[in-house]
Amino acid sequence: MCGIVAYIGDKDAYPILLNGLKRLEYRGYDSAGVALLEQGVLSIHKCQGKVSDLESHVNGRSMKGSLGIGHTRWATHGPPNDVNAHPHQSTSGDLALIHNGIIENYAAIKEELTHRGHTFHSDTDTEVLVHLIDDVQRTEGVDLVEAVRLALDSVVGAYAIVVIDRKAPDSLVAARKSSPLVIGIGENGSEHFIASDATPIVEHTRNVVYLEDGEIAVIDRTHGLRIRNIKNQDKTPFIQELEMHLEALEKGGYDHFMLKEIHEQPRSIRDSMRGRLNLAKGEVVLGGILDFEQKLINAKRILIVGCGTSWHAGLVGEYLIEDFARIPVEVEYASEFRYRNPIVNEEDIIIAISQSGETADTMAAIELAKGRGATIFGICNVVGSSIARITHAGSYTHAGPEIGVASTKAFTAQVTVLTLLALMIGQKKGALGGSSFNRLLNELEAIPDKVQRVLAKEPQIKYIADIYKNAANALYLGRGSSFPVALEGALKLKEISYIHAEGYPAAEMKHGPIALIDEEMPVIVIATKGASYEKVVSNIQEVKARKGKIIAIVTEGDTVVKGLADHVIEIPDTADQLVPLLSVVPLQLLSYHIAVMRGCNVDQPRNLAKSVTVE
Ligand code: G6P
After folding, report:
1. Most ligand 1 atoms within 8 A of CB, residue of 262, 304, 331, 355 to mutate
2. Tell me, what's the pLDDT at 491?
3. Full-model pTM
């Protein structure tokens, strides 16, 4: 939520900042801005809209400066307009600041500063922070970094900030609490990059330092990078090597990142299993959780927390873990979990699922459970992300960077890791018989090739999308672990095409949603062969009796549903429990094509952001 980028070195900062902002735009695209410092002159350019709007806005102006900061905003305080765009400036005009997060006590600080003569122009909490730093700097007579430290000490909330000072033209100061910041160290240490994640940095350097909570970094042209904490103690920067590859951040010939990411799933699912599923030995090894294996096997209860698509993956995980490992599982929205005084104790295992590894509510849920002594496992995609670092153990999904705001390959990778986890516990606990375990391992190994076969149905799915692209509503139905897939299918459609869609357990349809069904209403039903097949067929009959239009996801060779449905999309046969890994793919493609046909911006849907770092 909001993207931050900064540069100090010997090159022109503007092209580096602009490119960085384009990489970070998935974090928010309400406004964009940059500030450049050159020969004692601080110039700020910002406007409502996307990074491309900023480019047009500055077109023709001289954008000189080898030190600068840039920001792409997801609006929290105040509407998306030019004035609320970052960077924000102090009254003196000396300081410029960019911020990701929320300053919760900004109103009280604003009131105090107003009494002290400060005038504010925007509705943002960020402007309050830059005025506060400026005020501290002047009243205490301290340098920028000390002013930042003292100011942050009185602030409540979450932040990642970068500040520059016209009076100190050879340095910049960055700090974080709860919102991520990565610092890239260029060759010979002659240039440094700061960003909300590593995507703007990877094309310049692979050496990075992840700033920890409560740390303040000062980078200047003479001393390079120095880090201290909020208590003013020096810290030694821990330099790590980035594993990210540049190609993963490009569209690679696809029209949209979302389409590329949907098509990457055979590879990303394989990568999630690589080195973990061993058919020859008949075992699953999750290296990241080896130390806690016994705890998992003996768990009396597992709680899964996540948000959005990650929560849907958690729901699939519930079916898998209960079925394979016979351990009771509860799945909760992280945001609800943390606000209801949940019963959690030392014996509990919490699985936190998050693509970005930065979702504020998921992080807060983890902290709460940690505080009550529970053991926390993370299932994250972004390597080195905050959640990956605050959990006791975990498994990366290895799906590679996901740029499209609507999550696709991250979901299937999360479900793959949950499947491996459930299989591993089930086998070690003896809850899953040897032959069932081996059959499931074989089926799982075959999933990437089967996903490839589902992707080959794209022309047919595009044809169906064309028929239903103008629908006002859509209903998604499934039973068992196909229910969370129905939820995920409905979420995909509404978030990128803005068509109202609901996911329901198929049997629940008759308790309400059936009232909505008429001849205009597409009903997407996951009706694959398995335990509840006949029951789902009955639900399809109920929809048909009310003239609803059925789009059914069926197992290859099905004839019964074919005779009932308006359209069927066949997916390969697999074990009942693994169907979500296949059935979600046509739903992703259907949403994608409907959204494209409706002229929507699929990679950057309105009002959304990929990484939700506010609560
Ligand atoms: C946002 C994204 C979703 C994502 C959710 C949770 O809403 O748009 O795609 O599922 O956040 O994010 P996380 O990174 O924790 O999985």
Report:
1. 355
2. 97
3. 0.84
